[in-house]
Request: fold
Amino acid sequence: MPTEPLFRSIPGATDAFIDVEFDGHPLAVLGQRSVAAALLAAGVSRLRSTPVSGAPRAPYCMMGVCFECLLEIDGVANAQACLVPVRPGMKIRSQEGARHAA
Amino acid sequence: MQPDSVDVAVIGAGPAGLAAAATAAELGLSVALLDEQAHPGGQIFRDVTRAGVDRLQLLGDDYAAGRALVERFTQSTARYVGSASVWNISPDRMVHYSKDGRSQSMAAGQVILCTGAMERPFPIPGWTLPGVMTAGAAQILLKSAGVVPSQPVVLAGCGPLLYLLAWQYLRAGVQIGAIVDTTQRGDHLQALRRLKGALAGWRDVRKGLSLIRSIRVAGVPFYRAATDLAVEGGSRATALRFRIGATSHRVQADLVLLHQGVVPNIQITASLRAKHRWDDPQLCWVPHADAWGRLELDGFLIAGDGRGIAGAAAASLQGQIAGLTAAHDAGHLSEPERDRRAKPLRSALRRHLHIRPFLHTLYRPKIQHRVPADDVIVCRCEEVCAGELRRLVALGCTGPNQTKAFSRCGMGPCQGRLCSLTVTELIAHERGVSPAEVGHYRVRPPIKPITLEELAAL
Reply:
């Protein structure tokens, strides 16, 4: 859930807000960026918990190598949120613990 | 499905890939440039064509210079295949990639690998907590989304990127809580010895010094010669702890950005079983390549930071040389003509490489931040700590593939990208042998995650 944001957008950005769903709740985020960047700027600073110990995690590298930003995006699990452009209406879920077979 | 077919597939659209693709296309070859990002530029010139005037000014001239490179590529006949994750390249140069949830194949006469660099792992206590990122990640947020820290941020480690980011943050009006520099006093003397005769390097040194000066002038607390870095926090970062000499320090921060240099991303060359050597000055693996960028695999070339860290300007020169080589090897360019065109590129490249031994020495990351204490997580995915690896070495494991089998270290989604160097160095340290003797992970495709559905549809 959004907390005290760690990030903000610099003024002058022309990108418009779009509506997505994060963990079942509506969330307005700036478009024209990756899902990870959009969530960080919207005050979401924890994206998942680990399958091994349940420890909280957040994006670390933002360039597709660390796999810390794994989220469920539109029903697809383990999506790299730093590589997926955010789109209106996206249903985004944090990944808690291990994945389970549907 | 009939695979797409090209003379040259270039992997990675940073300075090396853009230059290689443009050069090969200008010489009449059919070229496809594949990249994970929707727009060309790589990480260094990330979204450079989409950045407005304000952001270009804020990020500085070196960033804005990337526009010319993208323009040359755009004006060539080379085709851009964006948002494409390459998950396998076979030795016979079939490139498999995933795009829009679908896997596709491309048969390439030659492949030029330009997969660049990634941040060196920075395994310290607390480095997995939310609120800890790499400086590179924070810079990507700035370049690609105009997103900056909203509260005083702490930058820690060493290397040019750390100071560049601080300088860019100050221009963007971001509050910097502290810069915690791990460069030790003796490092400067050592490094200066590496600069002898390298007059061309002075320009870069001056640029670096003026960055650091402007950060100090801005009144940012600057801690020098810091050791024993550790991030504090339970469910998120709350502070950075460190020592200077015998004194302990602690600075509060919800956001800590770490950086201790970048290293070649060898995931594709390792998956191809290309030969790599351990480079001690750079403390990383470097693929074997000749002066033209040819790997010892038929039809494969490499350019840019992926073949050893040399920076963006060197990367674009290496990319052009690789493009000429590909054209020559395909019969589109005579040998004398290739050599004639390569000559000025090579002398420019030599000038850019002069500064590297100085930088590698000055910003050589400290062993305590490369090979951590027992209770520090090494493998972020499987949460394997250094102590577990030491125990396995004591039991007789001699290399990373063995410790992987026994502990799952390196077996998670990142496939060892974030722990490979740490594991190799840790084992070498424990055994008292060189990293070269220890070796690196075997990397197997798919090197990016794909769904079974995609695989089945091939």
Summary: The longest strand of chain A covers residues 17-22. The interface with chain B takes residues 4-10, 12-15, 30, 32-34, 37-38, 40-41, 45-47, 50, 52-53, 55-68, 70, 76, 78, 80, 83, 85 of chain A (CB under 8 Å).
